[in-house]
Specification:
This protein is α/β, with parallel strands linked by helices and 286 residues long. The chain contains nine helices and twelve strands. The chain has helices at 13-27, 45-53, 82-91, 101-115, 129-135, 172-183, 197-211, 225-237, 271-282; strands at residues 2-5, 35-38, 56-59, 72-75, 94-97, 119-123, 142-145, 162-166, 189-191, 215-219, 241-244, 260-265. The strands form three sheets. Strands 1-12-10-11 form a four-stranded parallel β-sheet, with helices on both faces. A four-stranded parallel β-sheet has the order 3-2-4-5. Strand 10 (215-219), helix 8 (225-237) and strand 11 form a beta-alpha-beta unit. It is flat, with a radius of gyration of 21 Å. The structure holds iron/sulfur cluster.
């Protein structure tokens, strides 16, 4: 059996930075001041629960921030709305902003274009925290497109100007199809290319890898939307693609001695989990 591991598997720059920030705060905690993250720091339950055992508290509702003891609150790489930033600033907590710079750039585009009167079209999943954060920087109406069919449901006013941005981890192929369909509607629209390069590289490599293997393993948290997209891309090329969170989810009896196994992982999958899966698969006995 042969194993091929994607070079792009694992933490991206933005996630790495956010996780390192929490680790740094834990290491430098000289007093017993609490450390909070606004929402789980990344979409990986193992990392979140390991931080919880070190005393990091996840705050889910910002409205309740004043019921917590003052401390440091970390904004995760997905970013937050302008309103949430303002609530945090007034709260008296120290703010450690780990919003990924690529996401911040989108906040600025949305604010700038909506101030200029453009309505905003966001291509992505409106329930994802990154998209909720981006939408919260707009002063004008926001439209959401997640699927190709959603383009039909947008009511375009030819007198209105529109500006589009995309979720940083959006599926690049679907993005192209959506843009083509959108541009066929003939209206004034600015296209801002905001899918991040790390995502593009990871998706391209996953596609190429899954084309040449007999079985594919995609590792990542169940709530990780970028891992879900990787899984969909791989599944299109290789029907025996498995989406796992840890080795516990992997049934070893599906592998055969003649298999070539491809392994990739989402942007919020820690290296130790990837290494564990590689070594587990490597040691399969036939
Ligand atoms: S996927 Fe890209 S935009 Fe998102 S956190 Fe990672 S580096 Fe930043």
């Amino acid at each position: 059996m042969k194993i091929l591991v994607a070079k792009t598997a694992g933490f991206c720059f933005g996630v790495d930075k956010a996780v390192n920030k929490v680790e740094e705060l834990i290491d430098n905690r000289k007093t017993l001041k609490p450390i909070y993250t606004y929402g789980p720091i990344i979409h990986n339950p193992q990392v979140v629960s390991s931080f919880e055992t070190k005393g990091v508290i996840v705050i889910d509702e910002l409205e309740k921030i004043n019921s917590y003891d003052k401390g440091t609150i970390v904004i995760r790489s997905h970013g937050i709305t302008e309103r949430e930033v303002n609530i945090m600033k007034k709260s008296g907590f120290n703010i450690s902003d780990s919003t990924c710079p690529y996401v911040k750039k989108i906040h600025k585009i949305v604010k700038r274009d909506s101030e200029a009167g453009y309505e905003i079209i966001i291509i992505g999943n409106k329930h994802h925290p990154e998209i909720k954060g981006i939408a919260g920087w707009s002063l004008t109406k926001v439209h959401f497109i997640q699927h190709l069919e959603d383009v039909d449901n947008i009511t375009i006013n030819t007198k209105t100007r529109y500006s589009t941005v995309a979720q940083t981890t959006f599926n690049t192929e679907l993005y192209k199809e959506i843009l083509n369909k959108l541009q066929n509607k003939s209206f004034h629209v600015i296209i801002n290319e905001t899918i991040c390069q790390a995502t593009k590289d990871r998706q391209i490599e996953a596609k190429e890898l899954s084309e040449k293997v007999t079985k594919m393993i995609v590792i990542g948290g169940r709530n990780s939307s970028n891992t879900r997209k990787l899984f969909e891309i791989c599944k299109d090329q290789c029907k025996d693609t498995y989406y796992i969170e840890t080795i516990e989810d992997l049934a070893l009896n599906v592998f055969t001695v003649n298999d070539t196994i491809g392994i990739t992982a989402g942007a919020s999958t820690p290296n130790n989990i990837i290494e564990e899966v590689i070594s587990y698969v490597r040691n399969v006995k036939f």
